[in-house]
Write a structure and sequence with these properties.
46% of the residues lie in helices and 17% in strands. With 347 residues, it is of the alpha/beta class. Strands 3-2-1-4-11-10-5-6-9-7-8 form an 11-stranded mixed β-sheet, sandwiched between helices. The N and C termini lie far apart (42 Å).
C-alpha cells in the first residue's frame, strides 16, 4: 500500500516513552484537531491502543493500528534493538517510512536505539556520516537551532563540520533565514580555548565561509541570547545543555510561585500580573518545543521527550507534519548537493 497524495500519514511508535501509550494517543487526538489531513498509523499493542483511541472523537476514522507486543525498552542497547527487536513498535514504525506508507515517524523511545534503527533502515543522506538530533530552542530574540541534542556522544571534527552545514541549511528552511549565524559551543569565545577536536572543527567550518556564516564560538550562557541562529556541539554536551536549560526554567517557575505565595500583597500582585506571567512561562515551557529532528536521514524521524505528556506529544507530531509538508529532506538534499561536495572538502 502506498500513501495517499492528499493525506499526511504519520507513523507513531505508541509504546515508547515514560507515560505510556495513553499520553501519546491523547497527543495524537490534539494534533488531529489542528491538522485535519493527518492519518495516524499506530504501532503497538492493539488491546491497549484501540480502547484509548475510541475515547477521542477527533481520532474517529483517522487511525490504523498495526499490532505488535514487542517493544524497545529504555535499557536495550542499540545493538540489541537492531539484532533482536525485529517486530518492535519502533522498528515497524520506521520501516513504514522506508517503504513509503508513512511520511514521517514520531517516537519517544530509547534515543540510541531510535538513531541506530533509523540509520540502518532509512540510511543517510548523501555524504552525511551520522544523524544529529536538531531541535528548536527559545531565545531572547526568537528561536535558534541546537544540534546535536543527544544522538552522538562522541563526534570527530569532520562530523561537527557536517552538523554545521546541515544546521545552516536546516535554519534556512525552517527559520526562513537567508544567512543564519552558526557557532560552535565551547568553554570560551577565544580562539585558543577548547579541545583539539573543537579547534579543528572550527578551522574546517571557517574554510566553508562561502557556505556557512560562521561567527566563531559561543559559550553556554550565550545559547539563549539569540546572538547566533545555529549552535553546533556533540550529543553529550548538547543534551546536558538542553536538560540544564529545561531544569533552570522549572526552577525559575518554582521560585516565582514561592514568591507570589509569600504574602497577601504578593498574592494580590499576582492577580494583576497573572496574564503576563502565564505568557512569559508559556514561551519557556519545553512542551511547546518538543519534537527534535534526526537530521541527515533519508526519511523524517522526530524524537519526542521520553517524559512527554499529551501537549508535548501533540507538538512533536506537529513538527513531523510540518517537516513532511515542507518536503524538508528534498530541500535539504538540494541545498547540500548544490552547495558542496562534502567528501571532497573533508579529504
Amino acid at each position: 500500500m502506498q500513501r495517499s497524495n492528499n493525506t499526511l500519514v504519520i507513523a507513531l511508535d505508541v509504546m515508547g516513552g515514560d507515560h505510556g501509550y495513553k499520553s501519546m494517543i491523547s497527543g495524537a487526538a490534539i494534533a488531529a484537531e489542528k491538522n485535519h489531513d493527518i492519518h495516524f498509523r499506530m504501532f503497538g499493542d492493539e488491546t491497549k491502543i484501540l480502547p484509548e483511541c475510541r475515547r477521542h472523537r477527533s481520532l474517529q476514522n483517522r487511525y490504523t493500528i498495526i499490532h505488535t507486543d514487542e517493544i524497545v525498552s529504555s535499557n536495550d542497547t542499540p545493538a540489541y534493538a537492531i539484532r533482536n527487536a525485529r517486530r518492535s513498535s519502533m522498528r515497524l514504525a520506521i520501516e513504514d517510512v522506508k517503504v513509503g506508507i508513512s511520511h514521517a515517524v514520531v517516537s519517544s523511545g530509547n534515543t540510541g536505539a531510535l538513531m541506530a534503527l533509523s540509520k540502518v533502515i532509512l540510511r543517510m543522506l548523501s555524504s552525511i556520516e551520522r544523524p544529529a538530533i536538531a531541535g528548536i530552542i527559545p531565545t531572547v530574540s526568537g528561536k535558534s537551532i541546537l544540534l546535536d541534542m543527544g544522538a552522538n556522544i562522541d563526534c570527530s571534527a569532520s562530523i561537527l563540520m557536517q552538523f554545521a552545514l546541515m544546521g545552516s541549511n536546516f535554519a534556512k528552511i525552517i527559520l526562513g533565514l537567508d544567512s543564519p549565524k552558526v557557532a560552535v559551543l565551547n568553554v570560551g569565545s577565544e580562539e585558543i580555548k577548547g579541545s583539539d577536536t573543537i579547534k579543528l572543527a572550527s578551522q574546517m567550518i571557517r574554510e566553508c565561509k562561502d557556505l556557512i556564516n560562521f561567527v566563531g564560538y559561543v559559550e553556554g550562557d550565550g545559547i539563549v541570547k539569540g546572538s547566533v541562529d545555529v549552535i553546533v556541539t556533540d550529543g553529550f554536551t548538547g543534551n546536558v545543555a538542553l536538560k540544564t536549560a529545561e531544569g533552570t526554567a522549572k526552577l525559575c517557575r518554582e521560585f516565582l510561585k514561592q514568591s507570589f505565595e509569600s504574602s497577601i500583597l504578593a498574592k494580590i500582585g499576582y492577580l494583576f500580573a497573572k496574564k503576563s506571567i502565564k505568557n512569559t512561562f508559556s514561551r519557556l515551557d519545553h512542551r511547546y518545543y518538543n519534537g527534535a529532528t534526526l537530521l541527515g536521514l533519508d526519511g523524517i524521524v522526530v524524537k519526542s521527550h521520553g517524559s512527554a505528556d499529551e501537549i508535548a506529544y501533540a507538538n512533536a507530531i506537529g513538527v513531523a507534519a510540518n517537516l513532511a509538508k515542507s518536503k524538508i529532506n528534498s530541500l535539504l538534499t538540494e541545498a547540500l548537493d548544490s552547495s558542496i561536495n562534502i567528501h571532497g572538502l573533508l579529504e
